[in-house]
Design brief:
The longest helix has 43 residues. The strands form two sheets. The chain has a 27-stranded mixed sheet that branches. A two-stranded antiparallel sheet has the order 16-17. A hairpin with a 2-residue loop joins strand 16 and strand 17. The protein is mainly β. Helix content is 10%, strand content 45%. It starts with 30 loop residues before the first helix and ends with a strand.
């Protein structure tokens, strides 16, 4: 009887691969393929380790080595940032922990406040003076606190002036500049900007441009109801921005890892941007219905953007064009976050206004409470069990804002697995305008009528 030949009786390197229909080869593992799999896994591990090492080298090791070298050299040279011209610098009269503050006077045409370097840290507060002074100058008081008097050897507080360009024009203000490396020194600045007192009999004081570019500086705007900023730009990092009341035509606030809060009135465009923090604001959006750069005004827009943080906003919409019965202003609003909730509440709006709202999140609830004046469609993009329309008409009968005793009607058009749409109208909805769109990838969406 001839013995059946086993696959192990031959050289594994010369053994051919078996087809899937070979009964005798079931359960056979090709050693060559197994060795190749091990080599691929090793290559993946070594490649991933190399990427981690290179990333650590660039972002942690080399900066740390550079800082230690600079500390050994103890370089006191403070470079002037590009585009900035220095003027008079502060001369501290004391080397104790709290020297006398430095004072500057800045033109109100286009003031700017900047900071550069790792030692430029603190707060900036913008308020209105409670005393009568030069109506064309803002008083700037800079205070500093530190542990070691050597801290003042590494920083400069100076008057600054920008090299004018077509976009911004000439700007002047105060700058805090430090060495570009991190000495073993701790200090903190407080910048107080006092705008001139406005006479009660006078109208609002207009400021053409107001700009801050101060990383690591928290911003606080007090009640500035007597002032109107044509353009207000705030740029910071890892620091909060708070406002009691600010009015502007164009408003841009950008920060990271810190909240944006306050009450703002805007005539044209507003952008509030942060990350890993919340946005909690009251927005008064005003449509002036005027011409912009020679073209018809296209409406007032508002953008609220963050990530990993909730958004809560209360809106009050207004317009000045009362000559047209069919026009109540145009408002374009977007709100976006991730892994957090969005809650938007519209208190008041003009009759016949047009609202284009787009709110999106993931793993959170997107909810909007519409104003009685809204007359238009809505769309919700979410999974079927997580969409809801909260009907409050049974609790309180809606009053027709036009006074014509019309009925408030809620429509449902299409209900799919991922999308649902309808409309909130008065009577038959002949004047439907705008659109409300809510999206939550894996969360809930709610429209409160």
């Amino acid at each position: 009887m001839v013995a059946k030949k086993s696959y192990t009786d031959v050289d594994p390197e010369s053994q051919p691969l078996l087809g899937g229909d070979d009964e005798e080869g079931k359960g056979f593992v090709n050693p060559q393929r197994k060795r190749c799999g091990r080599r691929c896994r090793r290559a993946h591990v070594w490649g991933l380790s190399a990427l981690v090492f290179i990333y650590s080298l660039i972002h942690y090791i080399l900066p740390a080595v550079h800082t230690e070298i600079q500390r050994l050299r103890d370089d006191h040279n403070i470079p002037v940032p590009p585009g900035i011209i220095l003027g008079r610098c502060a001369e501290w009269t004391s080397t104790e922990g709290h020297p006398d503050p430095a004072e500057f006077f800045v033109d109100l045409d286009s003031p700017m406040f900047v900071s550069y370097g790792p030692l430029a840290v603190g707060e900036i507060e913008i308020t209105q003076a409670n005393y009568t002074a030069d109506a064309n100058k803002a008083k700037v008081t800079v205070s500093v606190a530190f542990e070691d008097h050597k801290f003042l050897e590494y920083v400069e507080v100076c008057e600054v002036r920008s090299e004018g360009n077509r976009e911004r024009g000439a700007e002047s203000g105060v700058g805090i500049i430090s060495v570009p490396w991190s000495p073993r020194q701790n200090g903190r600045f407080h910048v107080l900007v006092e705008l001139p007192l406005v006479d009660e009999a006078s109208s609002k004081r207009s400021i053409q441009s107001f700009r801050t570019q101060m990383p690591s500086f928290g911003h606080t705007f007090r009640d500035l109801a007597d002032y109107h900023f044509q353009k207000l730009e705030v740029a910071t990092l890892d620091s909060s921005v708070d406002a009691e009341f600010v009015e502007a035509t164009n408003l841009i606030i950008a920060t990271t890892n810190a909240p944006v809060r306050g009450t703002y009135k805007v005539d044209c465009d507003v952008s509030l941007i942060t990350s890993s923090a919340n946005i909690d604001v009251n927005l008064n959006l005003h449509d002036s219905a005027e011409f912009k750069h020679g073209l018809p005004f296209t409406g007032t827009s508002a953008r609220l953007s963050t990530s990993n943080g909730p958004i809560r906003a209360t809106y009050n919409l207004t317009t000045t064009d009362s000559s047209r019965e069919d026009y109540g202003g145009r408002f374009h609003i977007t709100a976006e976050t991730s892994r957090a909730d969005i809650n938007l509440d519209f208190d008041k709006a003009p009759i016949e206004h047009e609202l284009l709202l787009d709110a999106s999140t993931s793993l959170g609830r997107a909810q909007v409470t519409v104003s009685p004046e809204y007359d238009g469609p809505w769309i919700m993009e979410a999974l079927f069990p997580f969409r809801e329309v909260v009907d409050t008409r049974s609790e309180k009968l809606p009053e027709d804002p036009t006074g014509r005793n019309r009925s408030r009607v809620l429509w449902f058009n299409n209900r799919g697995a991922f999308v649902e749409d309808g409309a909130i109208v008065w009577d038959h909805g002949e004047n439907r305008k705008g659109q409300i769109k809510l999206k939550s990838t894996l969360g809930r969406t709610s429209v409160v009528v």
